Amino acid sequence: MPGSARLVVAAGSPVVLSNSRGPETLAELVEELSPPARAATFGLTGWVRHTLNGGRERT
Questions:
Q1: Do β-strands 37-39 and 15-17 pair in parallel, antiparallel, or remain unpaired?
Q2: What is the pLDDT of residue 15?
Q3: What is the reported pTM?
Q4: How far apart are CA 48 and CA 20, in angstroms?
Q5: 16 pLDDT band (50/70/90 cuts)?
Q6: Residue 33 pLDDT more than 80?
Q7: Count of CB atoms situated within 10 Å of the CB of 56
Q8: What is the pLDDT of residue 17?
Q9: CA-to-CA distance for 11 and 9, rounded, in angstroms?
Q10: Cα separation of 35 and 30, whole Å?
């Protein structure tokens, strides 16, 4: 995950990261990638993925 996040940020896009342990465990990576990176709960990242996918389920 960190490698992919770095590529997204390097391309100039914001990134929202999550994991099963909670956003506080991503603080070091978010600090490294800031300002376009932030950590969130899985529920929020699931909503973002759903919204960016036009409301369609991922196949």
A1: parallel
A2: 87
A3: 0.65
A4: 16
A5: confident
A6: yes
A7: 7
A8: 87
A9: 5
A10: 8
- Tokens standing for 51? 């919204």
Name the residue with tokens 């070091």.
Answer: 28
> How many residues make up the chain in this entry?
59
Alpha carbon distance 14, 39 (integer Å):
11
User: Are the beta carbons of 27 and 47 closer than 8 angstroms?
Assistant: no
If you average pLDDT over residues 11-36, what whole number do you get? 90
Tokens of 20: 């099963």
Cα-flanking dihedrals φ and ψ of residue 39, to 5°? -105, 150
Q: Read out DSSP for 1-59?
A: -HHHHHHHHHTT--EEE--TT-GGGGHHHHHHH-SSEEE--HHHHHHHHHHHTTTPPP-
- Tokens 């409301």 appear where? 55
The tokens describing 7, both together, are 């590529």
